[in-house]
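R.M. (postdoc): so does anyone remember the format we settled on? I'll just put the structure tokens first.
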């Protein structure tokens, strides 16, 4: 990725040459996550990210059964290909399917099904290139192999390692939600990056127990996704979502207590939620999902919003943040 004077700071992943900006755009929402998205709005969302300095865009065949990749590729088609980093995922392939599918709001005649085989990984890679309209992706991630670890290592990881050796991808990683399964995989094979969603946030610091120390010791860079835990850390009101489901009263109360401390320091909860994960030394970048330009603009503004050090102190004193958690300086 070529440096851009207007871009956010960037860091390389593991011992690879692949760089990601401090904030990346998660492109699952562009595929009609839960509700349809106007294609023009999806394109404008990518443009807003670009204008804000974001140069890392993450997608997957699973997102809208290819719709995210298609929309992202179209939105980036006229950009300098050497100026941005693409990550997509292997472990699912597309099959014919009529009608609504899973949590995606725009049926397109396809669905994604698990396939961690060696051949499946190559098929997924080629399909992603076609939908993205590109000749390469910089980061290839094994997608949600929680219940298929042995198969994923024997098939998908082998394929990605070969693609990296051939110069067709630059970095190999995992894209997961669970810390224990992720740690098991990292202990068994070589990876450059771990994209982990929702496990290192103001509400959930479970990645501190085993996963992040392992990443540090093995030189694996982390991309921290799901920093709002599906929305509760953006707006902790009754009915807010945590991990894609309605949050239980205990979690809601905890989020509201965190928000109250943020209020006392005149700091939006969203700013604290975005900046906290980035302070851990294992974290190279945070990934923010957005479905409108306004959401992108808000995320970048919150990332840059001043947060007083006393806020982190008060969260720890109240038992709302792990004492050992690194905080922004």
């Amino acid at each position: 990725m070529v440096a851009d004077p207007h871009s956010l700071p960037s860091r390389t992943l593991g011992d690879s040459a692949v760089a990601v900006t401090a904030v990346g755009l998660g492109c699952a929402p562009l595929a009609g996550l839960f509700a349809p998205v106007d294609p023009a709005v999806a394109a404008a969302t990518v443009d807003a990210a670009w204008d804000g300095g974001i140069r890392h865009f993450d997608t997957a065949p699973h997102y809208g059964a290819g719709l995210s990749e298609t929309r992202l590729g179209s939105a980036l088609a006229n950009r300098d290909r050497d100026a941005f980093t693409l990550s997509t995922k292997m472990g699912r392939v597309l099959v014919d399917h009529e009608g609504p599918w899973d949590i995606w709001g725009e049926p397109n005649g396809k669905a994604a099904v698990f396939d961690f085989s060696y051949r499946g990984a190559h098929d997924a890679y080629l399909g992603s290139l076609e939908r993205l309209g590109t000749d390469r992706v910089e980061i290839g991630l094994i997608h949600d192999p929680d219940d298929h670890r042995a198969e994923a290592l024997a098939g998908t990881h082998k394929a990605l390692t070969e693609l990296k050796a051939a110069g067709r991808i630059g970095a190999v990683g995992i894209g997961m939600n669970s810390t224990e399964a992720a740690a098991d995989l990292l202990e068994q094979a070589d990876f450059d990056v771990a994209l982990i969603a929702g496990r290192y946030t103001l509400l959930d610091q479970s990645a501190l127990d085993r996963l992040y120390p392992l990443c540090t010791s093995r030189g694996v860079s982390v991309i921290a996704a799901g920093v709002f835990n599906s929305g509760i850390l953006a707006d902790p009101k009754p009915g807010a979502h945590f991990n894609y489901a309605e949050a239980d009263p205990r979690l809601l109360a905890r989020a509201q207590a965190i928000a109250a401390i943020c209020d006392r320091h005149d700091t939006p909860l969203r700013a604290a939620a975005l900046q906290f994960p980035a302070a851990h030394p294992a974290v190279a970048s945070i990934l923010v999902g957005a479905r409108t330009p306004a959401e992108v603009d808000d995320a970048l503004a919150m990332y840059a919003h001043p947060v007083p050090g006393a806020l982190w102190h008060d969260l720890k004193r109240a038992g709302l943040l792990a004492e050992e958690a690194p905080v922004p300086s």
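R.M.: ...and that's the designed sequence above, right after the tokens. Also worth knowing: The first helix runs from residue 39 to 51. The chain has a mean pLDDT of 96.
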